[in-house]
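INFO  loader      accepted 1 record
INFO  loader      residues=312
INFO  predictor   begin
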Amino acid sequence: MENRNHVTEFILLGLSKNKKIQILCFLFFLLCYLAIWLGNLIIMTSITCSQLINQPMYFFLNYLALSGLLYTSTVTPKLMTDLLTEKKVISYKNCMTQLFTTHFFGGVEVFIITGMAYDRYVAVCKPLHYAILMNRQKCNSILRASCAGGFLHSLGLFLHTIFLPFCGPNEIDHYFCDVYPLLKLACTDTHKIGFLVIANSGLMGLVIFMVLMASYFMILYNVRAYSAKNRHKALSTCSSHITVVILFFAPVIFVYIRPATTLPEDKVFTLFYTIIVPMLNPLIYTLRNTEMKNAIKKVWCTGRFWKGIPMI
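INFO  predictor   done
INFO  writer      dumping tokens
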């Protein structure tokens, strides 16, 4: 693909040209990235080393933490490196790779969140059939479908972009390679491709968001018949899920639902679903979750995890 383009590398304009702001941003994102690693690793280890891994909700939460960690890792390290360098350059091949991997792991995360919503819907609305509908085989099928859905979503955007000619300029007004900033640089009419991107990302995000919110409203409606204790538990779990859904999907819909244009606000909204949400997920899913907090105490405070590590 490089041979048909005059552009072999792109310059990322980043978040700001002010050196002091860049240093402050670097320190902030460094702390965020460390928190993302620490929080998600604690969740994955606590679930894997406890009986929670046998419960569908925590089975999905384990992989949501993993996908969130991989998702932010496609963007954050490069962003932090660029904040400390004068020339923020990314090669054409690395740019296309970043575009594909970012949307792949982002797509997987979206579909896992959808799987978690389905799990909660079955648990609340069809409790007698829960063990049959959400057995381990079904959970594995949902996980495989999430990976396939993320792959198809990412492949569609990748194929729309990889065949575009880039003749110059090569400055991307963003902090990573995303589809809309790249369409803006293409040496051809991209209006039709822009509508395909809206269908692939914007409308897909909007439809999934509406389905998720509808499922949670049905759950909230059905928990009225529960006892006070079970109602509180269901509401606590659903409120955590709804918070994640809103924080993730609202910025995604804002960025991708409109025609192929870029706005200065896009960078701020993109930070939410690439860095802020993966950092907040561990807190959101643990602060109001008694089972998760108990698992963390058992695994980390009683030494269950450390006993499994061989002494040197």
